[in-house]
Amino acid sequence: MNPMTKRRLVILAEGRLDLFSAKTAVSVIRYRKEEVVAVIDHVNAGKDLSSIIGVGKGIPIVSNVGETLKLKPTDLLIGIAPPGGMLPDEWRKHITDALRNKMNIISGLHLHLSDDSEFCKLAQDHQLKIWDVRIPPEDIPLGTGKAKETKTLRILTVGSDCNIGKMVTSIEITDAAKKRGVNACFVATGQTGIMIEGSGIAVDHVISDFISGAAEKLVLDRIQYKLLSIEGQGAIVHPAYSGVTLGLLHGSAPQGLILCHQPIRKTLRHFPNFPILPLSYLIELYEKLAQPIHPCKVLGISLNCFGMSDNDALQEIKKVEKETRLPATDPIKFGVDKFIDAIQSILP
Amino acid sequence: MNPMTKRRLVILAEGRLDLFSAKTAVSVIRYRKEEVVAVIDHVNAGKDLSSIIGVGKGIPIVSNVGETLKLKPTDLLIGIAPPGGMLPDEWRKHITDALRNKMNIISGLHLHLSDDSEFCKLAQDHQLKIWDVRIPPEDIPLGTGKAKETKTLRILTVGSDCNIGKMVTSIEITDAAKKRGVNACFVATGQTGIMIEGSGIAVDHVISDFISGAAEKLVLDRIQYKLLSIEGQGAIVHPAYSGVTLGLLHGSAPQGLILCHQPIRKTLRHFPNFPILPLSYLIELYEKLAQPIHPCKVLGISLNCFGMSDNDALQEIKKVEKETRLPATDPIKFGVDKFIDAIQSILP
Predict the structure, then answer these.
(1) Distances (CA, A) of A108 to A190, A219, A294
(2) Same domain, B190 and B331
(3) Which residues of chain A are within 8 Å of residue B285 when distances are taken between CB atoms?
(4) Spatial CB neighbours of B67, under 8 Å, sequence gap ≥ 6
């Protein structure tokens, strides 16, 4: 499968088409716009998509699956994360309509659509695939440390917190490297990244003994590339997710890290009692943890300056560069050329 | 359930009663000898148990379940880990015999005995429990950081590698603290520890998003104790298991760590390409990772001097104490009084 050239996606965002509820939809549209043929949301049907979510100019918003058929869709992608991860009743009809019209289903819900007997039967009858992207493959081995022996350059994004721009930074690095002619691959480790790339493993859904084995498998399956830009997860000091972060760090055995950070955030998201650690503390910690597996340095600081003016963002970048003596940028506002320079300087 | 006072265990070690294959049996006998009424191994039936595995003097070795019935057993505990974690055919009869004779089954095999239809039916018919200790409870929440708000003193064992004495050290600390009148509890996080204690969660079998949630639950469920001696897992720089180690560290939010180390070991077990890190490196790393969640120090070094003479072990202890300026001991050879002193000095 090369999903990059073959998928014609319809994104289901029924009743929740906004920047916050439809984060998955927004990311898929931002990075795979050429694959998206329509968005379903009866509330906003007929409106201009980009005026609602900032991306996707020209992609039609329609009310139901029937209206998308003339666009020859191949897959219905669930683009919204409902509270609790369950399936709202009103989406069932859209999914069965899609299956009846020969569309595969791509879902990142906690609830597995492939466990639903009605969906399963329809998929079987029409020889279609229901892809629950959170379900890890069954053949994940224990970690062995072998990723460090591969010749590909492995760059992992890490963070001062969760939801801070690791996926975006990893994709932007991949795209910018490709533009410079580097044979690069985005390695997805979370549900939205997997939907965008068409492959990957949701490492936070693996049995904990196998986190680093999953990361290692992602690397070993992609040694034909010169550069792997690996999506990080969690944060190294976090009350909930640090284990996933460290397993990913050791399993992927990166030579370089990009540290992602949001200047205006003072405490961990959803954890007001846990201050964000200083960048210097985090740089030392990440390097000290990574080094014994493979020599590894933080190569740059990716700043998420969402909501700041360009001028304020530039001031912040200057301040961080002075403080850390590392290149810093906001990937969305100013691109990642600085990171590619740093990465190319250590390309084998 | 208070398994400490009610269980009368028969340990199945059929055909593999030696120090290496029967590690679970050896540990259960070492720490819960008063609960063990017999061991099954037809090869060594009638022999002196302690001459074979060094512990368990006086416990009879018999050939089958029938011979144990006069001892009024309540549970059959699988005391051996067969290669691959599967169930050897010749054990099936012992297990069905036990169930027919009203004994519960306690198993740490990878394969879940509670999934076996024959065992299940027998258990149901006789109202018995098949306890697969590796299966985590279903109600594990995400980590919230709440363990740090409890008033109990939380001491976690950590290591320079796996299989280095973390469980033994945690149990010895619990027992020594109890002898001094401290209301202490051993918190089991691996299969053998769970079998010994009769409760716990195998944290390496939890979905990786929930490692620290599992550790936190173990703490929050035991706040009636003054001291929790928490069994560590893995090692903080390890190609396979570091994620579990860190999730456990952050979820349990310890105030003190005991670092376990084997002086003669130069590389990670099964990983000859990964040298064991210097103690100073590990102490700094563990403290730097733990501190931001809750103030935390390494309080002592637990040395596994298995195979060394007492004199060599004492020399090593002196060397390590000079090097780290922390109390060191070998718990099996010389007890853990030094650790209890250090722990009591920070008891609230």
Answers:
(1) 9, 22, 33
(2) yes
(3) 285, 288-289
(4) B38
| Same domain as A258, residue A160 | yes
Tokens of A176: 């910018």
Other CB atoms within a 10 A radius of the CB of residue B124 amount to 11
Q: Evaluate whether B243 touches A246 at the Cβ level (below 8 Å).
A: yes
For residue A140, tell me if it sits in a domain: no
Question: DSSP for B58-119?
Answer: TPPEESSGGGGGGG---EEEE----GGG---HHHHHHHHHHHHTT-EEEE--SS-GGG-HHH
Q: Which domain holds residue A126?
A: 3-132
- Shared-domain flag, residues B246 and B192: yes
Domain match, B76 and B198 both: no
If residue B187 lies in a helix (H) or strand (E), which one and from where to where? strand B184-187
Q: Report the gap between the CA of B205 and the closest CA in chain A (Å).
A: 6
Last residue within a domain, chosen from B81, B108, B132: B132
Asked if residue B140 belongs to a domain, the reply is no
Residue B141 lies in a domain: no
The CATH number that applies at residue A320 is 3.40.50.300
The answer as to whether B138 is a domain residue is: no
Residue in A closest to B213 by C-alpha: A240
Question: What's the distance, Cα to Cα, between the start and end of chain A in Å?
Answer: 29
Q: CA of B224 to nearest chain A CA: how many angstroms apart? A: 23
Q: Is the ipTM of this complex over 0.85?
A: yes
Per-residue pLDDT of chain B (348 residues; tens, 9 = 90+): 444 458 999 999 998 898 888 889 999 999 999 999 999 999 999 999 999 999 999 999 999 999 999 999 999 999 987 776 678 888 999 999 999 999 999 999 988 999 999 999 999 999 999 999 999 999 999 999 999 999 999 999 999 999 999 999 999 999 999 999 999 999 999 999 999 999 999 999 999 999 999 999 999 999 999 999 999 999 999 999 999 999 999 999 999 999 999 999 999 999 999 999 999 999 999 999 999 999 999 999 999 999 999 999 999 999 999 999 999 999 999 999 999 999 999 987
Chain B positions in Cβ-Cβ contact with residue A284 (cut-off 8 Å):
288
In this complex, the residue of A216, A240, A251 whose CB is nearest that of residue B212 is A240
Tokens in use for A220? 């070993």
CATH code, domain with B61 = 3.40.50.720
| Span A124-161, pLDDT tens digits | 999 999 999 999 999 999 999 999 999 999 999 999 99
Give B270→chain A minimum CA distance, Å: 9
Q: Which of A236, A243, A292 sits opposite B244 (nearest CB)?
A: A243
Q: How many domains does chain A have?
A: 2
Q: Are residues B67 and B155 in the same domain?
A: no
Residue of A nearest to B140 (CA): A240
